[in-house]
Amino acid sequence: MSLEQAPLPLGPSSWAIDAGPDPLAARQGLIGAPLARRDGPAKVTGEARYASEVRLDGMLYGALAFSTIPRGRIVAMDTSSAERAAGVALVMTHHNAPRLHSTVELGTAERAAAADELPVMQDDRIRWNGQPIAIVLAESQEQADHAASLIDATYQPEPAITRFDQARADARPPALYQGDPLRQTIGDPWTALAESPHTVDAVYTTPRHHHNAIEPHAVTLAWDGDELTVHDCPQAVTHLAWSLAQVFGIRQDQVHISAPYVGGGFGGKMLWQHQILAAAAARLSGRPVRVVLSREGVYRVVGGRTSTEQRVAIGAEDDGTFTSLVHTGVVATSRHNNVPEPFIKPARCLYATRNATFEVKRADLDMLANTFMRAPGEAVGTFALESAVDELADRMGVDPIELRLCNEPAVDPSSGKPFSARHLIEAYRAGAERFGWEARSPRPRARRDGEWLIGLGCATATYPYNRFPGGAARITINRNGDATVEVAAHEMGMGTGTVQSQVAAERLGLPVEKIIFVLGDSSLPGVVLAGGSQQTAAIGGAITAAHRELVGELLKLINCDSPLAGLHPDEVGTIPGGLGRLDDPSRSESYTAILAAAGVDTISAEATAPEGMEQLEWSMHSYGAQFCEVRVSVITGEIRVSRFLGSFDCGRIINARTAASQLRGGIVMGLGLALMEETQVDGRSGRIMNPSLADYHVPAHADVPDIEVMWTDIPDPHTPLGAHGVGEIGITGTAAAVANAVYNAIGVRVRDPPITPDKLLRHSPGR
Amino acid sequence: MRRFDYARAEDVADAVRYGTRRDALYLGGGTNLVDLMRETVAQPAALVDVTRLASTIEGTETGGLRIGAAARNSLVAEHPAVRQRYPALARAILAGASAQIRNMATVGGNLLQRTRCAYFYDVEGSRCNRRSPGQGCDAIEGLNRGHAVLGTSSSCIATHPSDMCVALAALDAVVHLAHEDGERSLPLTALHRVPGDRPDIETVLRPGELVTGVELPRLPLAARSTYRKVRDRASYAFALVSVAAAVEVEAGIVQDVRLALGGVGTTPWRARHAEETLRGQAVGEPAFRRAAQAELAAAVPRAHNGFKVELAVRTVIGVLNELTREEA
Q1: Percentages of chain A per state (helix, strand, coil), in multiples of 5
Q2: Which chain B residues touch A694 with a CB distance below 8 Å?
Q3: Is the Cβ–Cβ distance between A559 and A491 less than 8 Å?
Q4: How would residue A27 be classed by pLDDT, with cut points 50, 70 and 90?
Q5: Which residues of A are annotated as catalytic?
Q6: Which of A134, A387, A494, B58 is 20 to 30 A distant from B271 in Cα terms?
Q7: pLDDT tens sequence across A426-441
Q8: Which residues of A touch B141 (CB under 8 A)?
């Protein structure tokens, strides 16, 4: 920060009231600066130690064996060859596993982290194809892998539901999902639809997906009596500590989770069976254990995004005004968990309409529990909704951007709440100009380069602003004027530590080099899920609260002859290296002077952020306009994305470099959703048949063009720093933008991604 | 642990002596065999490392080119003689796998790589006649979008995965073999077997027989040959359909043609019906279409791979159009 700036008042003590924006939101300086990742050198040199690299004395290596049927009982298990194999220390099955308490399903308790509440290797029942049936511990990974391959199970199969079409006949409303019935009707949508002069009514389907973080799930752990130390790679260290404590019947403070680095999560790095099995086997063997799931193991043990079947119907007047909006459908779930992919969320906030109905039903299969994956609901929901809007625009012969913008709501159409910040029109206008949208022909097949047809498409992105309860932070300043900020938060590659160091530096008036940001450990303050794109706001709010507390402590510490004596925290503000009077900045004191005068080495303050009541007052979302150019071969139906631009409205951007990476990464994943990602399940057996990165296609370098990202950078007046998280919005709208561009190129509408060549061939003349 | 012996052969005599041992397999770059061993699909008693054997690429007296079986794929693809005289081969290799894999993989190993059928790989959970004779085939009624439509049987529909072999099949390549009993040569198109009722027997090689090299004959029309691969993503994906082709046209009439297909056959698929149909015909889409359809007439599509028939026809037409554009 520069010396000329006036003292920065403290952040608000509550975000629920209209107290005016966070003073930091308007600051120039470190906020917004494209700082390089502070942990970058450690990562590229290999110095950063991930969970699978921690070596403990006497450690054994674990390998899992998986069921090959979807449902039934284990009637016999021959583990004798495995037990005799070289280096094997333990074979654990349901026969000898220690008795464990039930897991607690995510969302049903504050710190719950499990995907389901199934017993873990406690009985002979098989509940999905791929369920772990044994864990082998051996002196080396190779020995463990080999021994696991020798385990021979005999099953008594039972009839199983393994196909969506079997299950959907019994589709039913889900239990409340995050307090939401996922069902709402406004006005009379069916009559309005029937009376609309222009309509679209289509069904869109999306397949299962897997997260495929570059780091497979890994855990290295050891017991010391009833104390469990776990090196893991979770998105929720505190949740994991509490959840493991439940399973093993110990206190949360007896479980210590260390996870300074996480090699990607995307929603998949929570509590799954491998951690429980590793800890149980470690207890049984009396030795530390490391379990690193193979890529196949990740597919068998860790659920992904489930499949959806979505109907979108829109009715519109001649002027484009929506008269009715229907977004309903069925998602595949398992019998044993409740994550009904909430694909209706975008439709509930994007368009003004007097008549609407939204509904998600679940259809239960005998499958591995599905879970959250980057923008759960929004990623696939925007595919259907934004494809349908494009279809309607095409039918009406209007520009799809103009159709969207003439349906901009003044208030949230489903809740009636005001928007905290919504600048979607600005994002569209800026993006369209930058992308060259005016070059788009409204007619398909109008632009061609040799055998390649060129098309442009756009779609709206949206993702909610979340700030979950539990954000807390501790700030400690020492006599050298260095500050340590501690939060039980997560660095999964997005740059959390870097970004929040910038926030803390600016809050405290210190150079970023003076900030040590500590995260990734369950002993730190807070219950901070790295999910829902909420870390930025949750930590930002926690630092604000802790800073307010710290300033109070500093003011208590000062002498009566200090220029700041007798002041209330709201009467002072941050100046470089210390505090100054808001009404007279010349009256100030540095942190080091305050500590020195008081004769103390450090001062520390910890606080919990106020609950995210702002989310009850306002409809809070990020938005974006996604633009895509594709080239489609008229001969083969091959699709190549040649240009992509995302124009976002997601509050104040804190770090231009890491935010751009997050947004771009989301778009890359969206390209995968559009064009290639699909977890292939054999419907006869419920078995995943492409559990590898060779067979499950994600975009490789050659599939990803230059992706340009831009943003409005308009602070949200009701959030810490005026910021929103940006981890998930990039994937939303992307697949629809691609599908809409494909339609514009070749005139074929694909409603069942991945959009592969075979789906275009059926409808394309081939020349 | 599954034990196996490992021996590195210094010369061909050395190799075939080791190679005749029971359950011995020759090891090239290991880019496929090591995976198969990890998955326990392959459980050799011994590996005979043949990467020290001939890897040279040199002209033959008859104007062809001989490539040692140990030549790395990437070296073949970048060799000037290959690029100038047999560009389809260079393009086919570069269309396959990744740069890292091409740097390791050998020509001999590429010839003998095995299908990527998911059921073949899923030792624990799926039935496969190719892996476990008589067990049944889960692909025929299962997820078979990537599977073959030509050369299939009621036992197996697994696709031969190689790109390189498709180009070699089109270019009349000859495979040189060595065995304790002596040497012999085969056309590449005679090396692989269609599955019939013994999909586990993938080639005509005798136990212990070693691929020592591949010879490309003098083939002037190959100088304008090409390879086109259609796939779901731009890199590291197996072909949905691929086409290797060379064509010689005079006065608008097809004088000679070489055509082979990948991604559609249980073996690298030389399209002889198409070639016969095309010879003597006027160049142009009608003739190309008739030729392609003649080849695909025998196709047996399954639930999810029927598109390959149309895609193969289109890709053949597209490639022949491209090769004859100036002549047309």
Answers
A1: 30, 25, 45
A2: 116, 236
A3: no
A4: confident
A5: 728
A6: B58
A7: 999 999 999 999 999 9
A8: 684
C-alpha B91/C-alpha A536 separation (Å) is 48
Question: Residue B55, Cβ neighbours under 10 Å: how many?
Answer: 19
CA atoms within 13 A on the CB side of A43: 15
Give the span between the Cα atoms of B173 and B186, in whole angstroms: 9
Please provide residue B141's backbone torsions phi and psi, each rounded to the nearest 5 degrees.
Answer: -105, 10
Residue type, A17: I
Of B116, B236, B318, the CB nearest to A700: B236
Contacts (Cβ under 8 Å, ≥6 apart) of A744: A440, A441, A444, A455, A456, A457
Domains of chain A, first to last: 8-30+468-611 (3.30.365.10), 51-159+211-301 (3.90.1170.50), 308-466+616-761 (3.30.365.10)
Contacts of residue B218, defined as CB under 8 A and 6 or more positions apart, other chains included, come to B62, B63, B64
| Token pair in block for residue A3 | 């010396």
The alpha carbon dihedral of A363, A369, A375, A380 has a sign of: negative
pLDDT(A1) > 70: no
Q: How many residues in chain A? A: 767
Is B249 inside any structural domain?
Answer: yes
- Say which CATH number the domain at B32 has: 3.30.43.10
Task: Give pLDDT, residue A117.
Answer: 95
Determine the pLDDT at residue A525. Answer: 98
Cα A613-A553-A555 angle, rounded to 5 deg: 110
ipTM given for this complex: 0.97
Q: Which residues of A touch B (CB under 8 A)?
A: 66, 68, 85-87, 129, 142-143, 146, 149, 451, 635-638, 640, 675-676, 680, 682, 684-685, 687, 689-690, 694-695, 697, 699-703, 754, 756-758, 761-762, 766
* Residue range A482-500, pLDDT digits in tens: 999 999 999 999 999 999 9
Mean pLDDT value of segment A40-44: 96
- Whether residue A754 has a cis bond before it, omega within 30° of 0: yes
In this predicted structure, the answer to whether residue A3 has a pLDDT above a threshold of 80 is: no
Q: What average pLDDT score do residues A54-75 get?
A: 98
Give the pLDDT score at A767.
66
Q: Do B126 and A700 touch (CB under 8 A)?
A: no
Q: Could you tell me where the beta strands, DSSP code E, fall in A472-571?
A: 472-478, 483-486, 515-518
CA distance A427 to A647: 5
| Other C-beta atoms lying within 10 Å of the C-beta of residue B303 | 12
Other Cβ atoms within 10 Å of A286 Cβ, number: 11
What are the tokens at B87? Answer: 């560009």
Suggest the residue from A150, A452, A636 to mutate for an interface test with chain B (most B CBs closer than 10 A).
Answer: A636
Amino acid letter at A91? V
What is the arithmetic mean of pLDDT over A239-253?
Answer: 98
Whether chain A has a CB inside 8 Å of the CB on B310: the answer is yes
- Residue B259 lies inside a defined structural domain of this protein: yes
Nearest CA in chain A to B122: A689
The identity of residue B163, as a single letter, is D
Residue B243, domain CATH: 3.30.390.50
- CB-neighbour burial class of residue A477 (10 A; exposed 0-12, middle 13-18, buried 19+): buried
* CB within 8 Å: A694 and B236: yes
Contact A262, A491 (CB under 8 A): yes
Q: Does B125 touch chain A (CB under 8 A)?
A: yes
Query: How far apart (Å, rounded) are the C-alpha atoms in residues A265 and A170?
Result: 33
User: Domain span at residue B267?
Assistant: 224-323
Q: What is the pLDDT of residues A72-90, one digit of tens each?
A: 999 999 999 999 999 999 9
Helices vs strands, H then E, count in chain B = 12, 12
**% of chain A residues with pLDDT over 70:** 99
pLDDT in tens, A452-461: 999 999 999 9
Give B231's contacts in chain A (Cβ within 8 Å). Answer: 638
